[in-house]
Automatic annotation (TrEMBL):
The active site is at 398, 398 (nucleophile). It holds the Pfam family tRNA_U5-meth_tr. The keyword Transcription regulation does not apply. One of its GO terms (biological process) is methylation. This is tRNA/tmRNA (Uracil-C(5))-methyltransferase. It comes from Chloropicon roscoffensis. Keywords: Methyltransferase, S-adenosyl-L-methionine, Transferase, tRNA processing. S-adenosyl-L-methionine binds at residues 295, 316, 373. It comes from the Eukaryota.
Length: 449
């Protein structure tokens, strides 16, 4: 038994000998499933029932597996997280007030991934499909509801499982057999969702798509199927997010299987904050200054910031994100951005050496600001050295440990002007920090790299 969930069994491959979902009969009769090892029968536990009573039936579990999910104590948990960050940075924050932006305590997550298992209900003896979570080979834990996810995703979760359970014959063989996992991608307004079905066996084009199209129409979603080397789509493989940022309505295409911010509300708060910082920079130094935007992704920040600078040079390595960024700029009428597909590490190395096509490209700009949004590994030495040449550095970090190392290096050349913590990942140890640094030397509006 695991607190906060129902123990299903050890994590393993599904759609294989250890698969919790047995193959469907294609005889046309309703399949009578056998539950193979390593799963164990499950039923309603005392903790499960108490959670329903305490929450008025809204939440099925007392804890979200692998999260410290306690919405009644969210404010306290977030305050503790911010305090730990402040203490870890110590004297580097001297003279700067650390501010913080809390998340909604529930229904904030727009991307979710689950394993799929079969289990026998101890009370009824019925076999049913369930969403499960596991962490690095730990026990699988059934998730009958997921209150950190959007209401739309919570609504879809049981509907999808019931649809899959009801499949018979050829439909079950095409859609349910070998199903390893399911991913959900939604939007803040709840009008758009993509469900991705992940298989441990090859999926067939026409047969799978024919049956899944029925599922997509019934649930009102798009469905993507993935197996090794194969991707099939019923509908479309992206969602469209719309929100007001910096006083303007902005639209983004967010592609299934590529990075997008999972916490839409905090993503908007982060964009508003960065727009405010850039407005201050522009009012002080003039809009004619240019922006270098590294790790730009799908143009999440590029689009709203483009109006605050003369020109923008944005760099991203992922092909699908580059294409999404290009479409997002066209959709939003952005015409002052040069988008470069390149490894940011290689691009920064060229800038540092002041040689090669990277330097030639950047030399046409008159930069005042650099925006970096690196992965958790932080900035490499080349990018750190390049950033040190800029008058203004905006650093978005999802790892306080690597940010601390990079900030220590940048404080040799820059002063810290602002530090804000955003709770992108409630009930975990992770958060996102946005810092603004300004070069120590007085005077000089822009920097050539």
């Amino acid at each position: 038994m695991v607190e906060g969930g129902v123990l299903v069994g050890k994590a393993g491959r599904m759609g294989s000998a250890s698969c919790p979902i047995p193959p469907a009969s294609t005889s046309g009769r309703r399949t009578r499933w056998r539950l193979p090892c390593p799963c164990v029968p499950i039923g309603r536990t005392r903790a499960h029932s108490n959670a329903n009573q305490e929450s008025g039936g809204e939440l099925a579990l007392a804890r979200i597996p692998y999260h410290d999910y306690r919405p009644e104590r969210y404010d306290e948990i977030f305050r503790d997280k911010v305090r730990e960050i402040e203490e870890s940075f110590g004297s580097m924050l001297s003279g700067v007030e650390v501010t913080a932006q809390a998340s909604a305590p529930t229904h904030f997550r727009l991307r979710c991934r689950f394993a799929v298992s079969a289990s026998v209900d101890r009370d009824t003896g019925e076999t049913r499909l369930v969403h499960t979570l596991f962490d690095r080979g730990a026990d699988r834990v059934e998730v009958s509801s997921f209150p950190i996810a959007s209401r739309q995703i919570n609504d879809l979760m049981p509907r999808l499982m019931r649809h899959l359970e009801g499949l018979e014959g050829e439909a079950a063989a095409q859609v349910r057999d070998g199903l390893d996992a399911v991913h959900y991608l939604g939007t803040m307004r709840g009008r758009d969702v993509v469900v991705t079905l992940i298989y441990g066996r090859p999926i067939q084009g026409e047969g799978w798509k024919r049956e899944v199209t029925k599922l997509a129409e019934e649930l009102g979603v798009s469905v993507v199927g993935r197996s090794k080397g194969v991707k099939l789509v019923a509908g479309r493989d992206y969602v469209v997010e719309r929100m007001a940022v910096g006083g303007r309505d902005v639209t983004w295409k967010q592609v299934e299987g590529s990075f997008s911010n999972p916490n839409g509300g905090i993503c908007k708060d982060t964009m508003d904050h960065i727009c405010e910082l850039c407005e201050q920079i522009s009012s002080r130094e003039g809009r004619e200054g240019d922006l270098l935007d590294l790790y730009c992704g799908n143009g999440n920040y590029t689009v709203p910031l483009s109006r605050l600078f003369g020109r923008v040079l944005s760099v991203e390595i992922n092909d699908r994100l580059v294409e999404a960024a290009r479409e997002n700029m066209e959709q939003n009428g952005v015409d002052n951005v040069t988008l470069v597909r390149s490894d940011c590490l290689k691009f920064s190395a060229g800038l540092r050496a002041r040689a090669g096509p990277e330097h030639k490209c950047a030399s046409r700009f008159d930069f005042s600001t650099i925006l970096v949004d690196p992965p958790r590994a932080g900035l490499d030495p080349n990018t750190l050295e390049v950033a040190s040449r800029f008058r203004n550095v905006l650093y978005i970090s999802c790892n306080a440990d690597t940010l601390r190392t990079c900030l220590r290096a940048l404080l040799r050349t820059h002063d810290l002007r602002s530090f804000r913590v955003f709770d992108h990942f409630p009930y975990t140890k992770y958060s996102e920090c946005v810092v603004h640094l300004e070069r120590k030397e007085a005077g000089g509006r822009a920097n050539r790299v």
